[in-house]
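Field reference: sequence -> structure
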Amino acid sequence: MREDTFDEDVAIVINGMVVDCVERGIVSPGAEEDRLRNIFTSFKGWRLALGDDPPARVPPLRIRLKPDAKPFKCKVRQYSPEKSEFLAKFNAELVRLGWVIENKESRWACAALPVRKPNSNEFRQANDYRPANSMPEGIAGVMPSLQVRLEECKGK
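Structure field:
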């Protein structure tokens, strides 16, 4: 996919990422910079906001809980008015898109953590899943480290 087929806002963000990589010394200006831009623009899945995209076509991950696992429900939290407004809008958008449904009988609940975006007054949604993540049995395998992969690419 060519950059000129992107939405203008997406093209601006992609260009900003390329410039950032050059400024940080991850890639050199010129040929490496152009190659990185071509890599970025070869993918068509760029999104700047949540959208009504189709679900990923992957099989569901089956999770087995440890025998002693018990449902976890975090305590009710109080948020600032600013964070409460963000959470209300964000969750309403998830419901509108059909990605979540309200379940008042759920036995599981982890804390929502609205985090301010760097150099911005906007928030992004994060969750503290540590209690729930300690409950499943381990899965053999190792996630590749993006940092290691980037270091390998830098020398080539």
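Note: The longest strand covers residues 111-112.
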